Amino acid sequence: MGRLDDLDLSLRLKKKEYEKRLAAAQDRLVELRLEAAGLLDGPELGPPLCVVLEGWDASGKGGAIKRLVAPLDPRHVRVRSFSAPTPDELRHHWLRRFWPALPGWGGMAVLDRSWYGRVLVEKVEELADADELARAYAEIADFERSLAAEGMVIVKLWLHLSPEEQLERFEKRKDEPLKAWKLTEEDWRNRGKRDEYAEAIELMLERTSLEEAPWTLVAGEQKKFARVKVAETVADALERGLAEKGRRPSPG
C-alpha cells in the first residue's frame, strides 16, 4: 500500500486510453453485478460489495462515484454520503448510523465518506476524546473483519492529490457559479490543517489496512486516471469475491 508521499501523482491517461479503459471497466462491472445479483448464471446471490471512498476535499470523489455507478441499474446500487452525525445519532454507539447503508447479499453500496471520519476529522478537530480515539482503530478493524467474515467484499479507496492541485481546484470552484456551492469555509479551514490531516491519514492507513479490507491509494492529480483506477479496482475486487464463491474463474 505504501505511504502518501510514495504515491506517483504524475500518473496520467490520454483521452482515448481513458475512454477505452473506463468503458471496459464499466462493462465488466455491469456483468459482475448482474452475476452477483443472481441474474446471469443462476439465482444464487453473490457477496455484498461495499465501496468506501475517502480523500482530500476536491480530490474527485463525486466524479469517480458518478462514473462508477452510471452504467449500473439504480435498483442494484445504493450511494450514501455521510457528514457530521445528528444530535440523535450522537446518542448511540458511533458506528450505529452506518449499518443501514450496508449492502446485503447480491447488493452494492458506495459510501462517500464513512466511519473513517472518527479517526480523521473527529481526531484532528478534537471532536472525540482520547479514550474514544484510542478505541477507534480496533473498533473499525473488528467491524470490518466481522463484515468480511460474513462474506462482504470491502473496497477502501483513498483519493490523494497535491496541495497545489487542491488549491487550483478550490479556485476553479470559487469562480464557477454552478460549482461554488461545493466550496465551503470548512474546506478552506481543513486545507489550513493539511499537515495534521496528513498525519492522521498515515496513522489510519497503518492501523486499518487489513488483509480482509486493505486500503488502495489512488493518485488523483488527474481526474481521468483516478476515475479509471477506482472503477478497475472495484471490478477486480468483486471478481475476486465471486471467484471465492466459485462463481467464476479466478482473475489473471
Model regions low in confidence, pLDDT < 50 over at least 5 residues: none
* Largest sheet report: 5 strands, parallel
Q: Please write the string of helix (H) and strand (E) elements.
A: HEHEEHHEHHHEH
How much helicity do the residues have? 40-55%
Average pLDDT for all residues = 93
Tell me, briefly, the overall form: globular
| Cα end-to-end separation | 20 Å
Query: Helix count?
Result: 8
- How many individual β-strands? 5
Secondary-structure content class: alpha/beta
Could you walk me through the main structural features you see in this protein, from its secondary elements to its overall organization?
The structure is a single chain. With 252 residues, the chain is an alpha/beta fold. Helices cover 45% and strands 12% of the residues. Helix 1 packs parallel to helix 8 and helix 2 packs across helix 8. The longest helix is centred in the N-terminal third of the chain and has 22 residues. The radius of gyration is 18 Å and the shape is globular. The two termini are 20 Å apart.
